[in-house]
Amino acid sequence: MQVLIAQIINGLSLGSIYVLLVTGFNLLLLVAMIIHFAYPQVVVFSMYITWVVLQLTGNNILLGVLAGVGSSVLLNLISAPLFQKVMKNRGEVDINSTMVLSLAMGMIITDVLSHSFNRGLPIAFPEQISESTPVLRIGLITILSGQVWSLGVGVVAVTGFFLLLYKTRAGRAFRAIAEDPSGARLVGIPLLKTGLESYALTGILGGIIALLLATLLGSASPGLGEQVALKVLAVSIIAGLGNLPGGLVVGLLLGILEAVAQGYISGTWSNVIAFVVMLGVILMKPSGLFGTKL
Amino acid sequence: MSLALYYYLSITAVNILMSWALYVPYRMAHLHFITVANMAISGYTAGYLVMALHVPFTLALAIGFLLGGLIGYLVSLFIGDAPTFAVVIVGFTFITITRTVIENMPAVGGTMGMFGLPNIGGSPSVHRFVILGILYGLVVLVGFLIHRFDHCSLGRAASAVFVDKDLAVSLGIDIRKLGILLQTFSCTLAGGCGVLYGFIYRSYHLDFFTFHLVGITMTIIFVGGYATMWGTVLAAPLLYGIPLLFPPEIASWRIVIYGALLILVLVLKPEGFITRRSVHCVEAFLSRRQKN
Question: Is residue B56 located within the same domain as residue B154?
Fold first, then answer.
């Protein structure tokens, strides 16, 4: 029982990161109309930039965090005109071609990381970031400070993000475009500007997720982005593409499922369990459990 | 024949076949990446049959094709008419699951892989000619079948689905049946390719069946031209061959080059280098010459 409780706490930390990733992914899908499969790779790229800046500045965390967030925003903004051009080429919103473009971006980012940083070896974050001091110990249950941080910041970020989407003027503009782009244009919402804002906002979110992942995992490798990308797209499909509340529920559930499986089954097999469950749900219900919002 | 030429010719043929395996379901907008997982499943199964049970190569190859087709058929029952992103994620998930299962199976060598597959026909030189013969025989056969498909009502139905799914349904096209047919064909082809891929190197290793292979085949299709089968025939030898001419320090950036090229083509030449229009022009020119 103690193992189960410990793993559920782990799962909540991991799940909150999935929720943030899926929310960013869904926001780009709803507002900019793109399937940004490489979004998690952008996040892992930010982790690497944070690591480089930490190395260069003698572990100056503020500069590291700023560099991580900045690189994520920059990458997202650079990719924006490419996505817009591809959609314009097809003469209509074409989610498939943006997905292919995004897959190409992912290929480049993963290969650059495996060539140019730390000779392709996994990177380890300093203790100031990946804090692993036990905060609470009850029997088998040990809660590390890194878990508390990532869960706390994750919950705050998810809440803040949802408040922004549902309680602010900018959020209403995002959701209006998601519901009906033509109607949104009619009532005076600038589509291009709001679209670019969604790229910038998801960039900021990407930087925060990079920091949370660094805190929770303490390390990163070039292949991490691909692994996470699969899960994010799967969570998004299971929840229903573009369904923000659905993403919240399924993201948390996946985190818990993965952590519980890790508690009872050896490393690689536990990963397969999560994928098999995801595959089963997608095969049975390709349109998602909570309905697609596209 | 030199070993380098043998590898170039055989891998080019595999790339053409695998890209066609992706091209066929993409005719109705399905990016069916499960083909890479099927390659691994059929390849390792055939390797095990030949090495451990001493099954003849031809029978193992036939089993590889059948196994690929069977898996493709079973999966397509669920995703025959699914949206593209669902098909993509099913493919990627299948690759991950397959790799993990193989990694944990000592019977097929686990992470070490499977080595020492026998030469077909006895000597290494005969082996190479047999493999090349089978591969290019398959290229001709599959090329003919796809050419016929492109020019028959099924091909036109697939084009209609690609352009507008709702319109295709209102025209009476059974999207699910068409999806099942194309996905099963694609997986059957991939299964056979998986067996042959291992016999080219006389070994199987998980490094053969990674997301890089997905990237390579995707680049071949989109750079060559996704609207006709001829784009693949042009792009496969060039994209595999040109990086081989680069110095090793540049050639190691092959995937970055592929990715950049793919983005450039999507932005500047969205239909790829060989478009349907250019193929129609060539066909019209050839038929005019034949008449004269």
Answer: yes
Q: Chain A: residue nearest B249 by CA?
A: A115
- Tell whether B98 and B194 lie within a shared domain: yes
For residues A116 and A290, give the distance between their C-alpha atoms in angstroms, rounded to a whole number: 41
pLDDT value at position A131? 65
Report CA Rg, chain A: 19
How far off is chain B from A195, nearest CA to CA, in Å? 19
| Contact criterion met (CB below 8 Å) for B235 and B187 | no
Q: For A139-151, what is each residue's pLDDT tens digit?
A: 767 777 777 777 7
Rounded to 10°, the helix B254-268/A61-90 angle is 50
Task: Determine the Cα–Cα distance for residues B156 and B162; give it in Å rounded to an integer.
Answer: 10
**Which pair of tokens denotes residue A249?**
């529920």
Task: Please give the single-letter amino acid code of residue A124.
Answer: A
Q: Which residue of B has its CA nearest to A108?
A: B256
Structural contact between residues B132 and B10, judged by C-beta atoms closer than 8 angstroms = yes
Cβ-count burial B201-225 (b if 16+ within 10 Å, e if not): ebebebebbbbbbbbbbbbbbbbbb
Size of interface A-B (CB pairs under 8 A): 122
Which tokens sit at A81? 């005109």
Structure token digits, residue B234:
């042009």
CA distance A10 to B97: 23
What pLDDT is recorded for position A90?
A: 56
pLDDT in tens, B209-247: 888 888 899 999 999 998 899 999 999 999 998 888 888
> Could you give the ipTM of this predicted complex?
0.83
Q: How many domains does chain B have?
A: 2
Please tell me which of the candidates B89, B258, B266 has its beta carbon nearest to residue A101.
B266
Residues B114 and B245 in one domain: no
